[in-house]
Amino acid sequence: MAFTSLRSLAWGSLHRSLNTTAVRQRGPGATHGDEGWKRWRKITLLVGVPAIILGHVNAFWPSEEDKVHRPEFVAYEYLRIRKKAFPWGDGTKSLIHNPHTNALPDGYEDAGH
């Protein structure tokens, strides 16, 4: 009985101290008002939107370093081993085959590039 009243007293005083701390920091009768959302709107428009635009430019703007040159084909005996044909197409190409990037067992398809 004494433990429950002590616990309720502790929680009640903690609750009151948290509530009065918030009131003391803002002052009595203080509200957020119109200035809070206006400030965050300005921050969003002046910082957030340009950051998103610069991120997209950085991600999608082509540069000379982004051009990938594929390595020369070397027919290693332990790569591109086909024990069984794929069940689609002619059986030599994977499901997500890219002729410029993925080599077949005997070399690239478009050897001219």
Overview of the molecule:
With 113 residues, the protein is mainly alpha-helical. The protein folds into two domains: 2-63; 68-113, Cytochrome c oxidase, subunit VIa (Cytochrome C Oxidase, Chain G, Irregular). It is built from two helices and no strands. The chain is elongated, with a radius of gyration of 33 Å. The mean pLDDT is 79.
Index terms:
single chain; 113 residues; mainly alpha; Cytochrome C Oxidase, Chain G; elongated
Q: List the domain count as a whole number.
A: 2
What is the alpha-carbon Rg in Å?
33 Å
Q: Helix coverage percent of residues?
A: 40-55%
Q: Detail the poorly predicted runs.
A: none
- Describe the sheet with the most strands: none
Write the layout of secondary structure elements.
Elements: H1 2-26, H2 35-60
Give the structure's gist in a few sentences.
The protein has 113 residues and is mainly α. Helices cover 45% and strands 0% of the residues.
